[in-house]
Every structure is written in C-alpha cells, then in structure tokens.
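tool_call: predict_structure(chain=1)
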Amino acid sequence: MQTFFIVAILLLGFLITFQIAKASEYVAVLRGEEKAKKQTNRVNAFMLLCFLILGLIGVYYCNERLKGKILGEAASNHGVLIDRMLYITIGVTFFVFVITQVALFWFAYKYQQSDTRKAYYYPHNNKLEVIWTVIPAIALTVLVGFGIFYWFKITGTAPKGAMEVEVTGSQFKWEFRYPGNDKTFGKKYYKNITGDNPLGQVWDDPYGHDDIYVTGEPMHLVVNKPVRLIIGSKDVIHDVGLAEFRMKMDAVPGTPTTMWFTPTKTTADKIKETGKADFVYEISCDQMCGRGHTGMRGEIIVETQEEFDAWITKKSPKYIDALKAAAAQKADSTKPVTTVSVSGVK
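tool_result:
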C-alpha cells in the first residue's frame, strides 16, 4: 500500500507540473511573449528527459519487485521451456525498447526548438531501410520458430505410458473422465447425453464400462508422470487454462483437441514453495463463454502414484452407476399400486 501511495504522489506531482507548464505556455501565446514560449519549450524538453530516466528506473524496479511473485516457477516440463522462450522474447524486445525510447526522448531534448538551428532534410537511405527491415525479420523468425517448435511438442504424441484424462467443458463447469484398467476410453455420442449420462457414453461399448466420471471435485494427476489431456466441449467454445503449468488449449464442440505435459511439483510442494496453505492448481476458462464465464473454475491435485491409486480405487465407474439407477427405476415401476380409502373414496 505504501508503494502505491508513493507512485500515486509522483504521478500527481508530474501531472501538476505538466499542467502548470501548459498553462504558462498558453498565457505566453496570448501575450505574444515569444521568449516565454521558448522557455516553456525548454521546460517541456527537460521534463521529457526526466520522464525517460524515471520511466526506465520504474521499469527496472517493477521487474525486480514482481519477478517470480505472480505465478512462481513453472510446475511442468513444458512450462520451463515456455518461460525460457518468454524471457528470450522479453530480453530482445526490452533491448529494442530501451534503444528506441532513449533515442525518442533524447532527440526531443537535444533538438528542441531553436532559432539558430535549421532542420536537415534526409529523405532516404537504402542501407538503413535494409538494416531495420532485415534484422527485425530475422529476430521475429527465430522467435516464431521457437514458438512453433514448442507448440508441436505440446500437441504432439505423448510419451509411451502417459496417463490420459478427458476434460469436457460446459456452461459453466468442468467434467473429467479417466479410463479404467483397460486404459482405453469408451465411445461417446452426443445424442446419448442425459442427466444420468452427462457425457453421452455408449453403454454398448465394453471399453466404457470401467471409465471413471468425475465432476464437482478436482482433477487428480500424478507427479513426474506425463499426462495427455483430451479436451472437448458440450456447448460453446471454452478454453482449458493451466497457468501454473503454462499450458492452455481451446475446448471446441465436436472437435477434440489434445495437449500433454508432465507435472513436476505436487500440490504439497507448491504449498511449501508459496507458503499458502490453501494453494491449489487452477483450471480457468480462458475463453469468454457466457455470463457465468468468470465462475468457471476447476482445480487440479498433483500427487504421488500411491495417493492417486488410493483415490481412483474409491471411484465407481459411471457404467455401474447407470446400471444401479436403471435397476432402481425398474424396481419402482414394478411395485404394486396400493389404494387407500379416505372418507369413502378409493
């Protein structure tokens, strides 16, 4: 809070000084005082130079103050590569930013209005044109090349033995499905979606008889084990955003998308690292999907293999739940109807 007030005071002081300078300039113009106008120009040039120095100091201060405090270190193998690419991009653009801003404000100060200096007309230079076209083109090509390379790694074939989790978005919740002992998902058909069959699983497919359906609770992943997410949507376009893992992927109706990564830190590790007892990995919807978009939040628990096995064994396959529901419904329909006489009415 103290830092906020200091910054606010500095900004307010700058605005007051700026307004005073502009008011002085207008008064000078109205009076026809050319000398006062030149003095105002010198003040403005000096203020621009001060703004450059204070601005660069502010950029450095904010970077050092907030470094690693917003998201912390990446908690996945791909996340480390994404962060590295981001740092390289920031380094390149910051270098260009400093050069251009220093030149901009220094020229405003150095070449302020003067009656003793005449502007030099410099219309064209082929060598300069080539330099400031080719160098940015090469830099951008390298940066884009890194991005494409990492994108194909993230969306490519997952390592052998990777676990799979199906993630389905709908307004405004996340639903998860895990394959059973056969390690294979059963088929789905959107017309089969009902209250008792929220994903539209095809019960005639034996591969789906041991699939585990989970909603309303965190998705569970195993630390240091690759996981392939199969992502879809039941209504509009959503987006699976995993900020701590530096991953995101659109959830598109009718078009499954995939990505894979390896969690490298358990939830317990992140609690120790951040000092927050209530820390959880978050699944956010990074695509505007309706009025309840901001509340479409899920959670992930990253744990050891033993902890995951203990959790998954407590879950009943959705097929078994459907059989139980069907049996209960059939039993209710076969119960004899009992008539009760009330005041002589049967």
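agent: The chain has seven helices and ten strands. Proceeding to next step.
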